[in-house]
Amino acid sequence: MPCTSSKVAPRPSSNAPPTTGHSLLLLQSPPKLPATCSPPRRKIMAVIPRGRPDSSLGHRRPVLLLLLFFCLLAFFPRRVAAFHSFVGTYGVNYGRIADNLPPPTEVVKLLQMARIKNVRIFDSDHTVLDAFRNSGLNLAIAIPNGLVKDISATPSKAMDWVNENVRPYYPATRIVAIIVGNEILGGQDTGLAEALFGAVVNIHDALRAMRLSGRIEVNTPHSEAVFGTSYPPSAGTFRPDLMPYLKPLLDFFSKTGAPFYVNAYPFLAYMSDPEHIDVNYALMKPNAGILDQKTNLHYDNMFEAQIDATYAALEAAGYSDMEVRVSETGWASAGDATEPGATLENARTYNFNLRKRLFLRKGTPYRPKRVVKAFIFALFNEDLKTGPGSERHFGLFKPDGSVSLDLGFKGLTSSSSSIKGWKILRYSATLLSSTFIFLALST
C-alpha cells in the first residue's frame, strides 16, 4: 500500500474469470449461489605426522587441522542461509501519515507489551530509529520511491544513505531489512521501474562494504499489479511486460536468500467486485470456497489463494524455492459510501481470523511446509492519508491508544482527558494483558 497515494487496482488479466477488479481476483470465490544442503564431498585423507606429545608439531596439530578445515570449505559451495529477518509469523506496518499519533517512544512500549516483534516503517525517520534502540524489536526500514533513481544511478548515494541511516544505529537498533521502494513495478513510472534493480544492488553493495549484507536483508514489495494471471491459484503468472524488471530482481534475491514480498489484500479484491465475490471467502469465514482443478486443491479463503498464486507465478518464472512473505494485508474499518465492505465488523472479523490463522504456523495448500508470515496493515489509523476514506481506517489502534477494532478487549487510555493528542500514558498491566492477547503471535 503506497504511503502517499491510494492503491490502484491493476488491469484484469485476459484469462481471469469474467469479473472486474483486482488482478489477484484469483482470489475471488465462486458466485454466491452455489457460494540445503551442501553437495556430497569426497573423502580426503590427510597424512599428518603424529609427533610426540611434547613436540612442537604435536602442539600445532589442532591448529593445522583447523586451517585444513577452512581451506576445504573454500572449495565447496554452500547454500545461502535464509535471513532471520522475521520472528514468528506476525508483524505490523507502522505508518505515520498523520498529525495525531503517539511519539515513537510510546509506540515501542505498546509494541513490547503487545509482544509484536516485527515492525516495518516506510522511511528511515531518525526519531523512530532512536526510539527502537535496545528495544529487542526487529525493524525493517525503507527507502521511499522518490530516492530510488538517485541511489540507482550513483553508488556513492547508496553508501551515503547507509552511512546516515544504518551505521549510527545498528546494532543497538535491530535493523533487519532495508525495503527499497514500495509497489514500484506495475506502476506508471517506467523510469522508476528501470531504476529499481540498480538501487537494490547498490544498497546491498554498500551493506557488504560494511560487512552487514549477511545480517540486513534488502528487498522490495510488490502489489497485485505484477500479476498477469492469478485465477485459479495454480495459473498464477507475472505480467510478461514486467519480466525484464522482475527477472534481475528474482535472480538477485535467489542468490541472497531473500523472500518475495507481496501486498495481499482480500479487501481490495472484494471491493472490486462485491456482486460476484463471497464476502465470507474474503473474511475467512465458513464458505464453500473454490477448487483448483489443476492441483485439486481446495481453498476456503482468499488470503491463501493470493499467496499460492504468487508461488505459482514464481515457479513458472523458474524460482520454485523462493519464499513468499506478505508485506501488507488488512481490512478497513470504515470508508466512503462507495465502499460498503469497509465496516468495523468486517475489519474485526478479518483481523481476528487472520491472527488465528497465522498463530497456527502452517503453510498454504500449495506450499504446506512454508509457514506463512505477514505484516498487518496497519498499527494506527492515519488521518492524513489521501485517496478513498478506507485508506484512513486500516489501524488496529486509534491515535489515543484505544483499539480501533472491537475485539472485546479494552484499550489504552490517557492519564488525563484534557490532554490533547498523545501524552504520557499510564498503563494498567491488567488491561494491557487483556488488550493484547489477540496480538501475541511471536515469542
Shape-level CATH architecture of the domain at 88-264 and 301-395: Alpha-Beta Barrel
- Percentage of residues in helical conformation: 25-40%
Order of SSEs, N→C?
A: HEHEHEHHEHEEEEHEHHEEHEHEH
Q: Under CATH, the topology of the domain at 88-264 and 301-395 is which?
A: TIM Barrel
Q: Uncertain segments of ≥5 residues (pLDDT<50)?
A: 2-57, 72-82, 413-443
Global morphology: globular
Major sheet details: 9 strands, parallel
> In CATH, what is the homologous superfamily of the domain at 88-264 and 301-395?
Glycosidases
End-to-end Cα distance? 27 Å
Number of extended strands:
13
Structural class: alpha/beta
Cα-atom radius of gyration? 24 Å
- Tell me the name of the CATH class of the domain at 88-264 and 301-395: Alpha Beta
Q: So how many helices? A: 12
Query: How would you state the average pLDDT, rounded?
Result: 81
Give the strand line-up of the largest sheet.
Answer: 5-4-3-2-1-13-12-9-6
Percent in strands: 5-15%
GO cellular component, one term: plasma membrane
Protein name: glucan endo-1,3-beta-D-glucosidase
InterPro entries: GH, Glyco_hydro_17, Glyco_hydro_17_plant
Region (Disordered): 1-23
Task: Describe what is shown at a glance.
The protein is of the alpha/beta class and 443 residues long.
Verbal overview:
The chain is built from twelve helices and 13 strands. The longest helix is centred in the N-terminal third of the chain and has 20 residues. Helix 3 links the parallel strand 2 and strand 3. The chain is α/β, with parallel strands linked by helices and 443 residues long. The N terminus and C terminus are likely disordered. Helix content is 32%, strand content 11%. The protein has a domain of 272 residues: TIM Barrel.
